[in-house]
Amino acid sequence: ASCIQHRLVVRDASSLQILQLYTCLDQIQYIEWSSDSLFILCAMYKRGIVQVWSLEQPDWHCKIDEGSAGLVASCWSPDGRHILNTTEFHLRITVWSLCTKSVSYIKYPKACQQGVAFTRDGRYMAVAERRDCKDFISIFVCNNWQLLRHFDTETQDLFGIEWAPNGCVLAAWDTCLEYKVLLYSLDGRLLSSYRAYEWPLGVRSIAWSPSSQFLAIGSFDEKVRILNHVTWKKITELDHPATISSKKTIVYKEVEKSPTVDTERLTFPPTRALASSLFSTQSKYDISQVPVSLQYIKPVADRANPKVGVGMLAFSADNSFLATKNDNIPNAVWIWDIRKLKLSVVLEQLCTIQAFQWDPCQPRLAVCTGSSRVYLWSPAGCVVVQVPGEGDFQITSISWHSSGDSMLLLSKDNFCVCYLEREEV
Question: Which residues neighbour 25 within 8 Å (Cβ) at sequence distance 6 or greater?
Fold first, then answer.
């Protein structure tokens, strides 16, 4: 699904043929599929309205108007039949039921980076709250929205919450000014509290491993710390130095090369295909000899929100690898072997890393850098894929299909779908 101004377009994922066109009341600012792909919501924050469309019954539609309360966020519940709307100034979360048309309210939600989290099985929801100048967490049962547990947290300014994939442990972390990660059980008991150091800036990012055995914590000091699920103690620290000196680490460096032109084929005026090949540079990966010095950027100290520390973390679907990005070295992706807890590969790009995402079915990483190329890494090696097309297609984000057969490449104004061929066994 994609939106153009006030129009919603639903396409077939394999052929990109248009299946449905819907017209909304105003410019669409956010869209989201229900978990069973039968409904799609379109949020219009400026108007405080959410419209819901049915794929099975195109004539059916639903409009939710928050009125004077306004709207700043909207999302589906895991069952795909309830919509959670957050009103302006985070006064409350309104839970609308599509089946019974009933409404439930959750008061005092906290305005933070990640204030609502669902367990993967869809049974429970955790909500970060702020009342009387203190942080709290409420856990709700999703089938009837009854409060299961309500407890205060030992945080100064709670920044985010995230469930482990098995739904047994909830991680909560404090503001960047206070290094603190808290781990709670489903009944609200504090299992453990982790603090790496005291005074410098603290937690930058967090990621659970798919098996729930590891919690990776990216910090402002350019390190990743991995906690284990038995004692919740640190098992290792992963550094991101500017110089790679280990001979066991493979460094892939992206290099640009100008195309070779056959002068006998030159015509005037040149054909479109020849002109595009004349002025387009190609890139490939070379394996660098260690030691390798990476481009290190020292942050500007007198500016707000400096880009520093490990800001991106992601585990592969099979739990074998961890990909990280240290914002002080913005052109590199670090890939760690989790079984050995060692650095396996570094991808050194020509431009700043915009996003990366793992294939949901196998250890294969897709990377984009704001250029018209997508980069793929797997244990077998690296490849650079040039996206065909006219004009400047700058890829800023990537989204894999759940089957791993294709991925969506997004730029500011366009999108394209990249289909990957499976090897016949």
Answer: 6, 44, 47, 49, 51, 63
| 247 inside domain | no
**Residues 172, 76 share a domain:** no
Cα R_g (the chain), whole angstroms:
24
Q: For residue 57, is it within any domain?
A: yes
Q: What are phi and psi of 119, to 5 degrees?
A: -70, 155
Q: Hunting for tokens 């479109």 — which residue is that? A: 272
Q: Domain limits at 132?
A: 110-239
Residue 246: inside a domain, yes or no? no
Q: What are phi and psi of 424, to 5 degrees?
A: -75, 130
Please give the structure tokens belonging to residue 23.
């017209």
**Contact indicator for 340, 320 with CB cutoff of 8 Å:** no
Tokens of 318: 């099979």
Q: For residue 23, which of 39, 4, 37 has the smallest C-alpha distance?
A: 4
- Give the pLDDT confidence of 146-155 residue by residue, as tens digits: 999 999 999 9
Q: Is the pLDDT of residue 200 over 70?
A: yes
Find, among 254, 251, 253, 255, the residue nearest to 343 by Cα. 251
What pTM was estimated for this model as a whole? 0.91
Express each pLDDT in 39-55 by its tens digit. 999 999 999 999 999 99
Among 187, 170, 390, 386, smallest CA distance to 276 is for 390
Q: Show the tokens assigned to 388.
A: 């065909």
**Are the CB atoms for 45 and 80 separated by under 8 Å?**
no
Which residue, 116, 139, 118, 241, is CA-closest to 188? 139
Instruction: For residue 249, give the DSSP letter.
Output: S
139, 189: one domain: yes
CB 417 within 8 A of CB 13: yes
State the Cα–Cα distance between residues 418 and 11, nearest whole angstrom: 15
Residues of 294-329 as b/e, b for ≥16 C-beta within 10 angstroms? bebeeeeeeeeeeebbbbbbbbbbebbbbbbbbbbb
CA-closest candidate to residue 184, choices 220, 111, 257, 135: 135
Nearest by Cα to 419 from 396, 390, 392, 387: 387
Q: What are phi and psi of 348, to 5 degrees?
A: -100, 110
Residue 83: which CATH number? 2.130.10.10
